[in-house]
Amino acid sequence: MKIAIITETFLPSTDGVVTRLKACIRYFLREGHDVRVIAPDLGVYEFEGAKIDGLPATTLPFYRSKKFALPNRNVKDLLLNYNPDVVHVVNPAILGASGVYYADKLGYPMIASYHTNVAKYLDYYKLSPFKGLIWWYFRKLHNKAELNLCTSNTVKGELEQHGIERVHVWKRGVDTELFHPNKYDREMRDRLTNNQSDKRLLLYVGRLAAEKEIEKIRSVLERSDDFVLGIVGDGPHRKTLENHFKGTNTVFTGLLHGEELAAAFASSDVFVFPSTTETLGLVISEAMASGLPLVAAESGPTCEQIRDNHNGLLYDSTKAGDFTETVLKFEDETLRKRLAKAAHEEIADLGWDSQSGQVLSYYKEIANTQKKKVM
Question: How many Å apart are CA 108 and CA 5, to the nearest integer?
Answer without folding.
Answer: 12
